[in-house]
Amino acid sequence: PGILSPPRHGRRRTDAIAGDMKPCEAVAKKKKKGLSPLLPFPLQDFWEDALVSPVFWTTGALVSALYITLHRTAEGWAQRTKPEETALFHSQVANKSLSALHASILAIFGYMIVTDPVCNRDVLYGRFPHAEIVATLTQTYMAWDLVMLFRSFRITRRRESGQESDSPAGLGLAFVCSEWMWILHHSMFLFFLAFAYSPLCPGHFFAGCFCLCELGNVFVHSRWFLSAFVGKDSWIYMLNGGAMVFFWFWTRIWLFYFMVATYAEYKHTSVPVAFFSLPFYCSTCTLVLFTMQVYWFGLMLQGWYRLLVCGQRT
Questions:
Q1: Band of residue 245 on the pLDDT scale cut at 50, 70, 90
Q2: Comparing C-alpha atoms, which of 272, 25, 55, 30 is closest to residue 124?
Q3: Mean pLDDT of 87-112
Q4: C-alpha dist (Å) from residue 40 to 37, 50, 72, 190, 191
Q5: Are 196 and 132 in contact (CB under 8 A)?
Q6: Closest CA to 109 of 223, 210, 208
Q7: Of 44-48, 150-154, 182-186, 302-306, where does mean pLDDT reach its minimum?
């Protein structure tokens, strides 16, 4: 109760970090030898700690193997179910199936983190015990998702241009120009990975909020499957469209305000002051991600309006 509304009682500062650790602002000032001072300190900890962590490499290897296996299984199922469709369709079935599965798992983990007693009591210093596994799972999926997105882009480009092969440089540049928003979105999760491994200022509560954002993706991909296998004229397609718009606003628009409002209460200040008091890399990443969510939400509202008022199945 009250997860998506600002808490009534002020968050308490507790020493959730083992040992006699100073507050995050003070500890963050310690110098890192051999690293650029312009690099945000969570990323410094990531390069120092995560890349030598067995959890990082073990989880990444297991998730990679599982991703490849499930992707091939889903693509094979699509080829047997819809043999008349194109290779792009079969690839999209596999991509969207895994994306929906990842979104569901991440939303469950997000709920566990947000409702965790330690993280909920201390939103800035509270640590979730399995944050490293969750973050590594997410970033590994994001990396493979970009690979499969590039694969689908290559299939589409060859089909539209009629060319069997393109130069690697030209194909890569075309992919970046076409899918730059997805590349930027997936790259932002490096901060999630870095904060999970950072012993200085974890902020796992807010990372859990970002995990909850993935709940809206479940309905986005359900819409595609309903369109492809059931039809756009079905009542369940329209019902899913309404749920998609609602949950996207709830988990992708309102949730950003909730995070800033929670941080403002933690700092005992107003929401605008709290936002601009964030470290530059935190406020910048949050603003970029929020702008993307508003843009996609606007597209959803346009499609929902055409569906209800104009009767166009877009």
A1: very high
A2: 25
A3: 92
A4: 8, 15, 38, 12, 10
A5: yes
A6: 208
A7: 44-48
Structure tokens at 175: 């992919």
259 and 212 Cβ atoms separated by less than 8 Å: no
Tens of pLDDT, residues 297-314:
999 988 888 877 766 554
- Give 28-83 as a DSSP string: TTS--TTS-TTS-HHHHHHHHHGGG-HHHHHHHHHHHHHHHHHHHHHHHHHHHH-T
Place of tokens 């369940």: 236
Q: How far apart are CA 244 and CA 241, in angstroms?
A: 5
Exposure string (b/e) for 90-111, b if CB count within 10 Å is 16 or more? bbbbbbbbbbbbbbebbbebbe
Contact assessment for residue 167 and residue 264, using Cβ atoms and an 8 Å cutoff: no
Average pLDDT score over the chain: 79
Tokens, residue 95:
């991509």
CB 211 within 8 A of CB 116: no
Sign of CA dihedral 11, 16, 19, 24: negative
Could you tell me if 243 and 235 are in contact, meaning their C-beta atoms sit under 8 angstroms apart? Answer: no
As a whole number of angstroms, the distance between CA 89 and CA 34 comes to: 48
**How far is it, in rounded angstroms, from Cα 234 to Cα 256?**
33
Q: Which amino acid is at 165?
A: S
Q: Give the tokens for residue 263.
A: 């941080």
CA-wise closest residue to 78 among 62, 64, 67, 89: 89
Report the alpha-carbon distance of residue 207 to residue 194 in Å, rounded.
11
Angular region, 55: left φ>0, alpha ψ -120 to 50, beta rest: alpha
- Furthest-apart CA pair in the chain: how many Å? 65
CB 142 within 8 A of CB 186: yes
Q: What is the dihedral of CA 268, 269, 273, 279, to 10 degrees?
A: 0
